[in-house]
Amino acid sequence: MPDHVHIMLKGQDQSSDALAAMSKFKLLSGLWMCRKKLSGWQKNFYDHGLRGHDDWRNHVRYIANNPVRRGLAREVLAYPYTGSIGCELLEILMPWGT
C-alpha cells in the first residue's frame, strides 16, 4: 500500500517479542529510507495479536486483498508488493473468491 504496510509475524517460541521485532524493523527500515531520502515511518504502529483460536488465514486474505479494495489492482496477486515468506500465499488465497 502506498501509505502503510501490513506485516504478520509468528514467534518461534514463548520468549518471542513482537514489539521488539517491529521496533527493530522500523529502526532498520527507517535508516534505509533516510539513506534513500524517502519519508520515514509514522511514530507509532497499530498491532493486533492473533491468538490460538483466531484463523490467521482469514487475516492473510484480508491483508492481501487490501490493494484490490483500494482500486490499486484488479487481482490480489497483480499487486507487485504482495508476498509472503513462510507460507504458500496462493494456497491461502484460493478460497478468497469462492
Descriptors for this entry?
about 100 residues, mainly alpha
- What is the helix fraction of residues, given as a range? 25-40%
What proportion strand? under 5%
Overall, the morphology is: globular
Going by helix content, strand content and strand pairing, the class is: mainly alpha
Roughly how many Å apart are the termini?
A: 25 Å
Number of domains: 1
Please count the helical segments: 4
Blueprint of the fold:
Layout: H1 18-35, H2 56-64, H3 66-69, H4 89-93
Describe the structure in your own words:
The chain is built from 4 helices and no strands. The longest helix has 18 residues, at 18-35. The model has no long low-confidence stretch (mean pLDDT 86). It has helices at residues 18-35, 56-64, 66-69, 89-93. The chain has one domain (18-97). 3% of the residues are buried. It is mainly alpha-helical and 98 residues long.
